[in-house]
Write a structure and sequence with these properties.
Elements (H helix, E strand, L loop, with lengths): L2 E5 L2 E4 L4 E8 L6 E8 L6 E6 L6 E3 L7 E6 L6 E6 L8 E9 L16 E2 L3 E6 L1
Parallel strand pairs: 2-11
Antiparallel strand pairs: 1-3, 3-8, 4-5, 4-9, 5-6, 7-8, 9-10, 9-11
């Protein structure tokens, strides 16, 4: 069982930045491709960004491309995954979830379908005011 913990959410004005972090309690994430998803009130959960196990392959939703950057630090003991969010817009307001996909390939193609992910965090709220 992998327990994921997100942090870094908050309230920010439009145009501002936030950095979300995700770590696994009591386990490293090096065996997992990682993704970020978000869910706004009344909407379905949607893909935001994902990265392969080695961080080489990344993929972004069109709505965040050029503004968000996913990265991971596998050098530290817990292997932290980040989502740097710049130029935030009110439509980015949502609960952001970190997800882990057990992947045998170090640089495999990343998945955008939330059903492909094995473990989920509880989410962190991001609110962007206009």
């Amino acid at each position: 069982q992998v327990q994921l913990v997100e942090s870094g959410g908050g309230l920010v004005q439009a145009g501002g930045s936030l950095r979300l972090s995700c770590v696994a309690s009591r386990r490293t994430l090096t065996a997992y491709a990682m993704g970020w998803f978000r869910q706004a009130p009344g909407k379905e959960r949607e893909f935001v960004a994902a990265t392969s196990r080695d961080g080489v392959n990344t993929r972004y939703a069109d709505s965040v491309k050029g503004r968000f950057t996913i990265s991971r630090d596998n050098a530290n003991a817990k292997s932290t995954v980040y989502l740097q969010m710049n130029s935030l817009k009110p439509e980015d307001t949502a609960v952001y979830y970190c997800a882990a996909d057990l992947d045998p390939f170090l640089s495999g193609p990343v998945r955008v379908n939330y059903a492909s992910y094995d473990y989920w965090g509880r989410g962190t709220q991001v609110t962007v005011s206009s």
